[in-house]
Amino acid sequence: MKKTEYIILSIILLCFMSCEKDRTGNADWTDETLSEIRFPSGNTFSKGEDVIIICNGLSPDDSFYLVSPGGQQTVIEEVTVTASGIFFTANVPAGNYTVVVEHGGERRELGAITVTVATINVTISHVPSYCLPGDAFTVSGVGFDGSAVLVLEDADGNRTPLDTESSANELSAEIPENAPRGKLNLLIVQDDGEQTISRAFFVTSRKWLTAIRYTIGAGMASYEHEYDIHVTRSDDGMVTACTEYAMTVQPGSDGELGEYTVYGFDPVSDEYGYTDFELKVRDSRILEAVFETAQGGIEDYYGFGWEYSDGYLSYAVGTGTSYSTIFLETVDGNISLAEFYIDCAYDDPSLANNPFAADFTLGILAADNEILRMAQVLGLAGKASANLPSSIDGTEVSYSCDEEGYVTRASYTDPYTSFPTIIEYTYE
Predict the structure, then answer these.
(1) pTM of the model
(2) Which 8-state DSSP code applies to residue 339?
(3) Where are the beta strands (DSSP E) in 162-276?
(4) Separation of alpha carbons 278 and 268, rounded Å
(5) Which of 110, 163, 212, 393 could bridge to 99 as Cys pair (CB 3.0-4.6 Å)?
């Protein structure tokens, strides 16, 4: 126990002074009444340790609370009140709290405390990145015991314990339908300690990308222009129509690629300069993009294969000027644009993207690649980066996300044109 002698002395002092004064506290509660508030043993306490506050004017009939930064209020059930102060046990999760007293219908703050919790001795081998409400998930590792509980924690420190089944190597729990949504911390609470095992665990519904809008040269009247793609999906997420293109879907096969599905796109207007193209698709991946180009001085339709590495797009060819041919490398689960001399800095781990959201890094290249834009909307561009870049070539990126952590808007300076650019994403 921290500062043991000091704590014992303070308790003795409180008890002694309580014999000298009226234990009901002062009837009139003024600013002067609580002007001499002191924490004789400091403001940081281990969970289970006694918190001592010396002050006058409190009554055993008062109510006491610990309030988190997010406003969650925990009633302090057992408080010893004397004429010279109070003490109680810090039996709450780790975090920062404000001690609040309610006296005669009026609330006052007694001060701030920090509660720490011992780290448990477990080793984690696997933590999923998300779970759908109503579904179950499993954490793998060693060192679990029968008291282990998986706990969700939101950005304000509010916690939701989950009904957890434990074994020596696994913890399993189901996410209730009414659980908090979005990017959460995932913890294991075991015995008298705990450990945070993920700071980007998503509790999220499955949404489908239905539209992308690019505003390039945003705010520059002479240069501003927009690109839009809007699609309609069936209940199972399949794209059935596209506003900007007449779309066809039919089976196909050849001796080299085998069997696949052919998505054909023919622009309904010349307004944006869109082109017609085909995508040969199998297993939610584009095998080949077919579009008109010139090879050897002859204009004709040619097919260009797309490639993937560990599920991430690594090579693609599409329409465009600066980013028509794409070579990509993925580092630590995030797509790198170093091949294009673009420095995407993933140095803020809190910028984790929803696993079902669009990949903004690919979106940078898609600003000048019509087929890649369509591939993103269709969900055929491979796995998305785990994080959102905090900056591009040293310039900060600004994001907006919905309540489940889906990125819905990103604004940045285009590294090729230097134009201010906005990408807006719509999900259903």
Answers:
(1) 0.79
(2) G
(3) 164-166, 170-174, 182-190, 193-203, 209-216, 225-233, 239-242, 245-254, 258-267
(4) 15
(5) 110
